[in-house]
Design goal:
This protein is α+β, with helices and mostly antiparallel strands. It is 43% helix and 18% strand.
Length: 957
C-alpha cells in the first residue's frame, strides 16, 4: 500500500473514532475547512487580479477546453447600456486586435472546431462566458498559445467596428424575436428587483439604440482582470499553462472595480399570484414557492447544511407519502441568493385544490412541532446516505463537465465535493444529524412565507373563476390552525432477497458448433468482429473498456409496419406493444419479471417502418441466459389475452372521443409541420394518422397479431445482432452461436416486401399558422436519392457542413437576416436510398423573399464552383476529431448506435474500417459534382410557421 493511501485510511479511522467518543457531529471541528477543489487543480491569481484555474484531464483525449468567465452581465448595465452585455458577446467574435474581422472563428474552425457547437458564448444576469475547445493532436503548442491570445484579446482587444455593430443588430433582433424563456411564470420568480429590469437580451428598442461608444463604455468599465477568470481543462501540463498565462496576461493593468456589486432577488411583501389557463388540462396545478436564502458550498459546514436541505426535502416527501397527501415538495435554486421551497398541489375543482393546500401546510406545521419518529428518520437517513455514496464517482468525467463546475465556483463560490475523505466526513455528519436539526431548518424555511409567497397556478376550465390571493391566504391560514392526528410510522418490510433459480429454458447451454459459422472478419482498427452464420444471422461484436461489465444488444431485421397492406395496417401495427406485454410462455410472468430484475437483464421489442428487432442488456455473466431469453421470446412468446382484451374494450369505450394528444396536435402547428415533413420525406406512413374504425376495433385479434409476429421474428435471414460492452469476444461469440446457430434457415422467401415510395416531383410550399405577427419560422427541404455506402454518406455530410458555413457567412454575417441558421441531414440507405437537407431558421416576414433568393444563389454557386481545398480539409478534420472523441473505448452506447446506424443505411464495416482513406478520397471536384447531381434547386419543399401566408404557398394548388 502506498504511503498516501495509508495516511488516508488512518485519517478515516480517526474520524470514525472521534464520532464514537464525542457526542457532537463529526464535522463540527472541521466545519470551516474549505471544500477541496478537484485533485490536481492549479488555482492562482496574477498581481493585476486575474484569476485562473487549470486542471489536467484525459477525457476526451487530445482536447483542451478554454473558458473566459467574466463575473459581469446585464445587471451591471446602466439605463443607457441595456442590452450591451449580450451585444458585446456577439461583437467579440467579429474582430479583435490580433484576429481582425472573422479570423478568430476561422482559426478555431481550421482546428476542426465548429462555430456554435465547440465555439460559443453565453450572457446572463451576472455572467458572460466565452468558451471554445481546441484539439492537441497537431501543433499543440501553437494551438494553446493562440487560444490564450484569443482570451487576452477578449479582455482588452475587442474591436467596436461601427459597421459590424450595425450589422449585428439585425442578428440580435432575430434572436430576440425567437427567444423563449421556457417558463410561463418567469416574471413571477425573478421578483421585483433589478433582474426584471435587466433582461440579458434587452428589448428591441434597447438593441436599436446601441452604438460603438456605448459598448466601449461598458467594455472598458467591466472587462478588467479582477472580474475575469481563465478556466483551462484537458490535455495540458498545469505548470506550463500557468507560466504562459503569466506571460500573456501579466501586462494587463490592475484596475479598480469599487462599484461592482452583486444583487439579491427581491420580492415585495405578501402573496404574489400568477395564473395561466390551459383548456386541455383536467386538473389545476398550483406551485407555492417560499423564497429563502440559499447555501453556498464553500466549506464542509456549508456542504453539511446544503445536504441537510436535501435531506429535509426527502423527509417531508416521505411524510407526505405516509399521510397519503398528493403533494410534491422540492427545493430549487433559481437565481442569485435564493432557493425556493416548492409545494405542488393539484385538484379537479376549487374545493379539492384548496383542501390539498391546507393539508400540506397543516402537515408542515405538525413536523415543525413534533418532528419525525426515530425509526422513520433513521430509514430516511439510511436511504439518503446510500444514494450519496452512489453518486461520488468522478471517473472519466469530461473536461467540459469540470469546466461547468468551475464556472459555478467562480460565479457563486460553490465547490463540489470530490475528495474521498471529505465525502466520508459529510456522510458521517449526515448520519449523525438529529431530528431537531431538521425541525429547526424547516421552521426557518417556512417562516419566510411571511416575507413572500409566490403562487404559480396552471388552471383548467373546471376551476371556474381565477384563484384569488384571499383564497390562498385563507387556505394557508386554515392549514396552520388545523391539528393533525398523531402519525404512526410503519417501516417497510425489509425482506432479504432470495436467489431466484434460473428457469430451465434459460439455463440450457446448447453445444457450440463451429460449423454454424460461415465467415469471421476482424476489423483491427475498430476492434470489431463480424460473424456470419449459415442460417443468415450476422453478429457484430465490439468490446469496450467500461468499468461496468455488461453487454448491450440491438438487433434488427428487414421489414416492419411499412410492409403491411392498407387493410392489415390498422389491425397489426400495434404488434410490438401487445407482444411486449407478455414474457415467454415457459415461465410464469411474475417469476420471470422478478428473475430478470434480480439478474439485471432487460429486453424490449423494437418495431419501425422498415425494421423489427430487439434492444436489451445483461451482465456478461448472464450472457447465455440473455440469449436464451431472446430465443424463447422469438419462438414461444407469452400471449397476455386478458390484458389484450382489457385494452381492446377500452378502445371500444373511448371510440369517437378526441384524445388529449389529438387536441394538443391541433393547437401545436410545429407538430403539424413536423408530421407533414415526415410524410413528404417518407419517414411516416400516411395511413399511420388514420384512426381505427369501430369495425376494426371489434376485429382486433391477438392470434392474428401473434401470427404476424412469428412471420417476422422467426426468420433468421437478414437479422443482425450488434453487441457492445466490456466482454471477451471469443466467449460471447461461442455463447451466441450456441444459442442462435440452432435456428434453421427458412424454407421459403419472406412474404413481405418494401412498398414503393416517391419523393415530391414539384415544388411544394405549405404554411401553418402561429401567433407571431412579424416572424416566419421556415424549413427548406432539398432532397433526392443516393447509392448507399460510406463514401456517399460522407459526401452528403460534407455537403451539409459546406452549406452550413455559407448560411452563416451569407444569411447571418453578411446580410444579418437570421440569428441561427441551421442545417440537418437525414438519410436512409435502406430501403429507398433517400436523403434530405433541412435548412431551418426564423426571420422577419419581410425578409422571406430575399432569403429565398439568397439560398438558391448559395446552392447554385456550389453547383458551379469547387469548394476551396483548405476549407474542405478543415471540415474533414472536424469529422476526424468528432469520430475520435465520440467513438472512444468507454462509449458502448455510442458504438452501438453508430454500428447499427451505418449497417441499417447499407454501409459496410469494411468501409468504416477504411474511414480515413474513404474521407480523403472525396475531392473538391467530386463535391461540386455531388452538389450538381444530388440537388434539384427548383424542386424543393418549404414548410413554414407564420401568421401571414407566403406569396409562393402552393398548398391550395
Amino acid at each position: 500500500m502506498k504511503r498516501n493511501n495509508i495516511k488516508k485510511c488512518l485519517y478515516i479511522v480517526a474520524i470514525f473514532l472521534a464520532a464514537m467518543y464525542v457526542n457532537i457531529p463529526v464535522y463540527s471541528n472541521s466545519r470551516s475547512i474549505p471544500v477541496s477543489l478537484p485533485a490536481g487543480t492549479l488555482e492562482g491569481h496574477l498581481p493585476n487580479g486575474l484569476h485562473y484555474l487549470i486542471l489536467q484531464n484525459p477525457s476526451p483525449v487530445s482536447r483542451v477546453e478554454f473558458r473566459l468567465v467574466m463575473r459581469v452581465g446585464s445587471v451591471q448595465e446602466t439605463e443607457q447600456q441595456k442590452g450591451c452585455a449580450h451585444f458585446l458577446e456577439h461583437v467579440a467574435f467579429g474582430g479583435t486586435t490580433h484576429f481582425p474581422k472573422r479570423s478568430l472563428v476561422e482559426y478555431l474552425e481550421s482546428q476542426g472546431m465548429k462555430y456554435g457547437q465547440d465555439i460559443n458564448a453565453f450572457t446572463g444576469f451576472d455572467r458572460t462566458i466565452y468558451m471554445f475547445a481546441v484539439p492537441t493532436d497537431h501543433q499543440k503548442e501553437e494551438a494553446v498559445n493562440r487560444s490564450l491570445l484569443i482570451m487576452r484579446d477578449w479582455l482588452d482587444g475587442i474591436s467596436m467596428n461601427p459597421e459590424k455593430v450595425e450589422n449585428e443588430k439585425g442578428i440580435i433582433l432575430e434572436e430576440l424575436r425567437g427567444y423563449d424563456l421556457g417558463d410561463d411564470f418567469y416574471s413571477l420568480k425573478i421578483g421585483q428587483g433589478i433582474f426584471g429590469r435587466r433582461m440579458p437580451l434587452g428589448t428591441a428598442e434597447d438593441i436599436r439604440k446601441v452604438t460603438p461608444q456605448i459598448l466601449e463604455e461598458y467594455y472598458q468599465k467591466w472587462y478588467i482582470p479582477s472580474l475575469a477568470t481563465l478556466i483551462i481543462v484537458g490535455d495540458v501540463a498545469p505548470q506550463e499553462i500557468e507560466a504562459r498565462i503569466k506571460e500573456y496576461f501579466s501586462s494587463l493593468p490592475k484596475r479598480s472595480s469599487d462599484d461592482f456589486r452583486t444583487y439579491p432577488l427581491e420580492y415585495e411583501k405578501g402573496i404574489h399570484l400568477s395564473e395561466i389557463r390551459d383548456s386541455l388540462q383536467t386538473k389545476t396545478k398550483v406551485e407555492l414557492m417560499i423564497p429563502h436564502p440559499c447555501v453556498v458550498e464553500r466549506t464542509l459546514g456549508d456542504a453539511v447544511r446544503k445536504n441537510m436541505g436535501r435531506l429535509l426535502v426527502r423527509a417531508i416527501s416521505s411524510r407526505f407519502n405516509g399521510r397519503k397527501l398528493k403533494t410534491n415538495v422540492s427545493d430549487q435554486w433559481y437565481l442569485s441568493d435564493k432557493n425556493h421551497l416548492v409545494l405542488t398541489v393539484e385538484g379537479k375543482n376549487r374545493e379539492e385544490l384548496l383542501t390539498a393546500l391546507s393539508a400540506a401546510v397543516a402537515e408542515l406545521n405538525h413536523l415543525i412541532r413534533n418532528g419525525w419518529e426515530e425509526e422513520e428518520l433513521r430509514d430516511i437517513k439510511d436511504d439518503f446516505c446510500r444514494q450519496m455514496a452512489s453518486g461520488t464517482n468522478n471517473i472519466s468525467r469530461s473536461s467540459s463537465a469540470w469546466c461547468d463546475d468551475f464556472v459555478d465556483y467562480v460565479i457563486s463560490g460553490d465547490r463540489y465535493l470530490t475528495d474521498s475523505i471529505q465525502q466520508t466526513q459529510l456522510k458521517i455528519a449526515m448520519g449523525e444529524l438529529q431530528g431537531n436539526a431538521l425541525q429547526a431548518l424547516l421552521k426557518e424555511w417556512y417562516s419566510f412565507y411571511k416575507e413572500a409567497l409566490l403562487v404559480a397556478c396552471s388552471s383548467h376550465s373546471g376551476l371556474g373563476a381565477p384563484l384569488t390571493k384571499e383564497e390562498i391566504a385563507g387556505a394557508w391560514s386554515h392549514g396552520e390552525q388545523t391539528t393533525c392526528s398523531p402519525y404512526t410510522y410503519v417501516s417497510p418490510e425489509k425482506e432479504e432477497e432470495t436467489e431466484i433459480a434460473t428457469p430451465p429454458c434459460l439455463a440450457v447451454c446448447p453445444p457450440f458448433d463451429a460449423t454454424s459459422i460461415t465467415r469471421i472478419a476482424e476489423y483491427p482498427k475498430m476492434n470489431v468482429r463480424e460473424i456470419e452464420l449459415k442460417n443468415g444471422i450476422r453478429l457484430i461484436l465490439k468490446p469496450t473498456q467500461e468499468a461496468d461489465t455488461s453487454l448491450f444488444l440491438t438487433s434488427f431485421a428487414p421489414f416492419g409496419t411499412s410492409s403491411l397492406s392498407d387493410e392489415e395496417y390498422p389491425l397489426l401495427e400495434g404488434m410490438a406493444g401487445y407482444m411486449d406485454m407478455g414474457g415467454i410462455a415457459k415461465v410464469e410472468g411474475k417469476i420471470l419479471s422478478d428473475y430478470l430484475s434480480q439478474k439485471e437483464i432487460s429486453l424490449t421489442m423494437a418495431m419501425e417502418n422498415h425494421w423489427h428487432g430487439f434492444m436489451g442488456m445483461a451482465p456478461v455473466t448472464g450472457a447465455t441466459e440473455f440469449f436464451n431469453l431472446i430465443y424463447e421470446k422469438i419462438f414461444d412468446p407469452e400471449l397476455r389475452r386478458n390484458d389484450f382484451e382489457e385494452i381492446r374494450q377500452g378502445l371500444l369505450r373511448d371510440y369517437g372521443k378526441e384524445t388529449v394528444l389529438e387536441k394538443m396536435l391541433k393547437r401545436a402547428p410545429d407538430r403539424l409541420l413536423s408530421a407533414r415533413m415526415d410524410e413528404l420525406m417518407g419517414a411516416a406512413l400516411p395511413r399511420s394518422s388514420r384512426k381505427l374504425s369501430l369495425e376494426q376495433m371489434e376485429g382486433l385479434n391477438l392470434d392474428s397479431i401473434a401470427a404476424f409476429y412469428q412471420k417476422l421474428y422467426t426468420r433468421p435471414e437478414g437479422t443482425t445482432y450488434v453487441i457492445c460492452g466490456n466482454f471477451n469476444s471469443d466467449s460471447v461469440m461461442r455463447q451466441f452461436v450456441s444459442v442462435f446457430g440452432r435456428i434453421p434457415a427458412s424454407s421459403s422467401p419472406s412474404e413481405y416486401a418494401y412498398p414503393p415510395f416517391e419523393l415530391p416531383t414539384a415544388k411544394y410550399v405549405e404554411g401553418f399558422p402561429n401567433d407571431n405577427e412579424t416572424q416566419t419560422l421556415f424549413d427548406y427541404l432539398f432532397f433526392g436519392h443516393f447509392k448507399p455506402g460510406l463514401k456517399s454518406t460522407l459526401t452528403l455530410k460534407l455537403m451539409r457542413d459546406v452549406i452550413r458555413s455559407r448560411l452563416i457567412s451569407v444569411l447571418r454575417e453578411r446580410e444579418s437576416l437570421v440569428y441561427s441558421p441551421y442545417i440537418s441531414l437525414v438519410y436512409d440507405g435502406i430501403p429507398w436510398g433517400i436523403f434530405y437537407f433541412d435548412i431551418n431558421a426564423s426571420a422577419d416576414n419581410r425578409n422571406m423573399p430575399g432569403i429565398d433568393v439568397l439560398l438558391k444563389d448559395i446552392l447554385q454557386k456550389l453547383q458551379r464552383e469547387e469548394v476551396d481545398l483548405e476549407e474542405l480539409q478543415t471540415i474533414k478534420r472536424s469529422f476526424r476529431i468528432a469520430k475520435r472523441e465520440a467513438l472512444n473505448e468507454e462509449a458502448s452506447a455510442t458504438w452501438r448506435s453508430t454500428l447499427v446506424g451505418l449497417l441499417k443505411n447499407g454501409e459496410s464495416l469494411a468501409d468504416f474500417e477504411r474511414y480515413e482513406e474513404c474521407l480523403d478520397s472525396i475531392t473538391p471536384a467530386a463535391l461540386r459534382e455531388a452538389f450538381e447531381r444530388y440537388l434539384d434547386i427548383e424542386n424543393y419543399v418549404l414548410l413554414y410557421l407564420s401568421k401571414k401566408q407566403l406569396n409562393n404557398d402552393t398548398k391550395n394548388n
